């Protein structure tokens, strides 16, 4: 790549970057809020000379940093390489795969063993097979060597079925896609939340896996935005509490903690498992079970968790709850590389 010509549009806070990569093609990159969309364009559509005259600011690509998303792709086990874009695949066409959202801290991936176990369990559930299985330690080394060893990043590790085909796969292997982006910890307190009465989480044999079929969560969060709420709580198909819009659900009443059972279609969260272990270590009572919305609304404290941390809910449908952090839980999501 030679140079990057950047123009900032003040109206919508987007900017478009044109990168000259060959005699025939250029790449159009649209950035918005730290996300990156890339399209390959014939160079005949791009007048680099006029761009250089028009845009006085010239910047270099920051290969040693991660201020935007960077993508690494592999069509064979443990051979990830950085790519500007990737071809049509079963992840894109059918949602045929799973993913892990992880936190990288100074050369290590937090809760790496739990991520490894859940990924392999998801591959078995979707019958994605390979003689050589993906390893989370390989991801940590890749980020340290090709992005930066020190620092904290959000990783999305997608593993999907190889080949194309139609609904019936033509290949039993897998491909990998790693996206590296800036990390933002969970909001400590979410002031408003509601229980959705229109969107339900369906149960199936892969419901506890983080699959690429995420439409219930997409639609729930679109509904949440429309209602101008900070969190949405979802029920399963039978009306039992399941989870939040992108997190697991917990609450506390009279010193006892509660969380929906995995049989109610919630994702088997890595953070959820860590919280279960920690509460047991602290000799606190936790009940996993089947609960209705009224059980939640009678709680003293409600919080949601994912790999980014814990968020306490201040109000659900106008009912107020305590937001004082539970002693001992916050340390699970600290910045130590030993976590």
UniProtKB/TrEMBL annotation:
Reaction(s) catalysed by this chain, per the record, are: L-leucine + 2-oxoglutarate = 4-methyl-2-oxopentanoate + L-glutamate; L-isoleucine + 2-oxoglutarate = (S)-3-methyl-2-oxopentanoate + L-glutamate; L-valine + 2-oxoglutarate = 3-methyl-2-oxobutanoate + L-glutamate
Q: What is its EC number?
A: 2.6.1.42
Q: Which residues form a coiled coil?
A: none
Protein source organism: Cyclobacterium xiamenense
Highest rank taxon of the organism: Bacteria
Q: Name one Pfam family in it.
A: Aminotran_4
Cofactors, names only: pyridoxal 5'-phosphate
**Keyword terms of this UniProt record:** Aminotransferase, Pyridoxal phosphate, Transferase
The GO biological-process annotations, alphabetized, read as: carboxylic acid biosynthetic process
Sorted alphabetically, which InterPro entries does this protein's record hold? Answer: Aminotrans_IV (IPR001544), Aminotrans_IV_CS (IPR018300), Aminotransferase-like (IPR036038), BCAT-like_C (IPR043132), BCAT-like_N (IPR043131), Class-IV_PLP-Dep_Aminotrnsfr (IPR050571)
Kindly provide the name given to this protein in its UniProt entry.
branched-chain-amino-acid transaminase
PANTHER family xrefs: AMINO-ACID AMINOTRANSFERASE, AMINODEOXYCHORISMATE LYASE
Give the Gene Ontology MF terms in alphabetical order. Answer: branched-chain-amino-acid transaminase activity
Pathway(s) where this gene product acts: Amino-acid biosynthesis; L-isoleucine biosynthesis; L-isoleucine from 2-oxobutanoate: step 4/4; Amino-acid biosynthesis; L-valine biosynthesis; L-valine from pyruvate: step 4/4; Amino-acid biosynthesis; L-leucine biosynthesis; L-leucine from 3-methyl-2-oxobutanoate: step 4/4
**What does the similarity note say?**
Belongs to the class-IV pyridoxal-phosphate-dependent aminotransferase family.
Its top-level enzyme class, in one word, is transferase
